[in-house]
Amino acid sequence: MTEPAARRRRSVVLVEHLFKQYETAAGPHPVLQDINLQIMDGEFVALMGPSGSGKSTFMNILGCLDTPTSGRFELDGHDTARLDSDRLAQLRNRFIGFVFQGFNLLPRVSLVENVALPLVYAGVGRSERLARAGELLERVGLGQYLGHHPNQISGGQQQRVAIARALANRPRLILADEPTGNLDTTTSHEIMSLFDRLNADEGITIVLVTHEADVARFAHRLVRFQDGKVSHDGASAAVLQEAPA
Amino acid sequence: MIGAMLREAWRAMGANKMRTFLTMLGMVIGVGAVILMLAIGQGAQNLVRQSIASMGSNLIMVLSGFTSASGVRSGSGSIPTLNVADARAIGDLPTVAEVAPLQPGTSQLVYGSSNWSTMVYGTTPPYFGLREWAIERGDPISDLDVRSAARVAVVGQTVVSRLFGDEDPIGKTMRIRHAPFVVVGILAAKGQSFDGRDQDDTVLIPFTTAQRKVFGAQFPNSTRMILVQASSEADMPQAEADITALLRERQRTPEGMEPNFTVRNMTAAAQAQAQTTKVMSILLGSVACVSLVVGGIGIMNIMLVSVTERTREIGIRMAIGARRRDILLQFLLEAVIVSLLGCIVGVAVGVSLSSLAQDVTGVYAEITPWSIALSFAVAAIVGVFFGFYPARRAAYLKPIEALRFQ
Known about the structure:
The structure holds two protein chains of two kinds.
Chain A: H1 4-8, E1 11-24, E2 27-40, E3 44-48, H2 55-62, E4 70-75, E5 78-79, H3 85-94, E6 96-99, H4 111-121, H5 126-139, H6 155-166, E7 173-177, H7 185-202, E8 205-209, H8 213-216, E9 221-226, E10 229-235, H9 236-242
Parallel strand pairs in A: 3-8, 3-9, 6-7, 7-8
Antiparallel strand pairs in A: 1-2, 1-4, 4-5, 9-10
Chain B: H1 2-15, H2 17-55, E1 59-64, E2 68-69, E3 72-73, E4 82-83, H3 84-91, E5 96-111, E6 114-123, H4 126-130, E7 135-138, H5 143-148, E8 152-155, H6 157-164, E9 173-176, E10 179-187, E11 202-206, H7 207-214, E12 222-223, E13 225-230, H8 236-251, E14 261-265, H9 266-309, H10 311-319, H11 324-361, H12 369-395, H13 399-404
Parallel strand pairs in B: 6-11, 8-10
Antiparallel strand pairs in B: 1-13, 1-14, 2-3, 4-12, 5-6, 5-9, 5-13, 7-10, 8-11, 9-10
Helix pairs in contact in B: 1-11, 2-9, 2-11, 2-12, 9-11, 9-12, 11-12
């Protein structure tokens, strides 16, 4: 394990002059305009902003699920524009872990197999997959629910399963798109403490999108989006005080 | 990875059992139809092949000429323009293996209180070999019988049952046109000829006896038919030509004049029928194949629905690292499994329908291993072919669009 200080010098995300626009019947609609952002290894960043400010689109681009119209996006030092779909899939598989607002677990599949799914695409054998998925579920406090199905557990528990799945291939970056959006306050705080521990103990870089100030407070850095541009970028506490909306 | 995909395919099929069942039903019907149709076609072909074999191989029939009186022309063989010497000369041709003159006639047979009308042929010993006709019991007609114009007869199975009933005919005396004949042998059963006549309804007597004592002959030693066997199938055309040339020469038929005899290739007619049966079975098979293709289109249809329904799932899988080829393989595998399972059930259905058809309608149906192999091959191809488009469509979804799909 390298020192956290040493790792922090390495950039996980580097975005320069990034634009994204959608073609609509009424002509091109700009969503992101000239975004410049660098996220270093081990950071815990919250993205905030009103609906339509472009933060979710930005998040999808960070996750290699969507592509920018122009500009440069480097993930872990790789220029993503030069990577083919297989290589991008591999990055999503190994380097990134996704956590979604709607959990996005496969409904017909048991929890342990849901967690093991990224390992399937990493080519890990079945017994090893299930063993590792079991450990991960244990770690998020759901060790007794291995054979259950997603509809048999609560929303907070489903999000824990989703986090366990995101951790399956030991990613360096976790992208969480409004992970607490469907959860009550107590459960939200439990989930956020889990992220906090992952960041503090394992140095995993975390980027999350949220609407809620008390969720954003868990992050160390806060980037606020407004009309497709970055309006504020700084330490969470400072930005929240300066621009509370 | 394949293991996980197989489990996944199984799960997806189990999630919508009714739909999977209906999709499979298309394949079941298609494969079942192919198996059944090929079995019936094969059965018909075998039947024709058997009747051809029962006729004897490489046979040529030479028929004597016809008369024409006051413009009325009687049929072939109505006057005997051939004789035993002609038969012997034909037998000496290099392309000919064996000959037998044949004197046919219809006669009433009488034995005790029963009687029966049948075809009586006067012939010589080579006839049995030519027709590949075995003697079931007793003796065939011998050369001595022919030389002495003996009153002996060899009877077919139908004649045995119609005339003698439960009695053993060997050694019994029956009458043909009032002349007494001793039955010396019984022919083995041959069944129907390819044109549907009962070949067992016949009596064979020595050629000379037929001429002198039963039917009579306009000229001594004349004959109305000569049955010829060519030395091989390849020699058939040459043998026909040789016989025609030989007989024209022997009868001094002038160049350009129609000869007073007819040479007929017996096998050609049968082979034409074999060809017809083959065409029919190909036709049946193709019709069945169409239903197999329809079944395949059913698979494609359902797979497209399935891809649309599972778009979100595809999005999730892509987000956590599935490559295009992983998604493609998963859906392709599902299509192939449905189609192969349908094929297995279809083979079972086809086989049972074939035996049912045989029992109920009496149609002769024969299942061949290659028709089952063909069904499996076609089913696999159909699965891949019709599964590929939907699978590709799934694989080329954009991750973000698939994820956002509601």
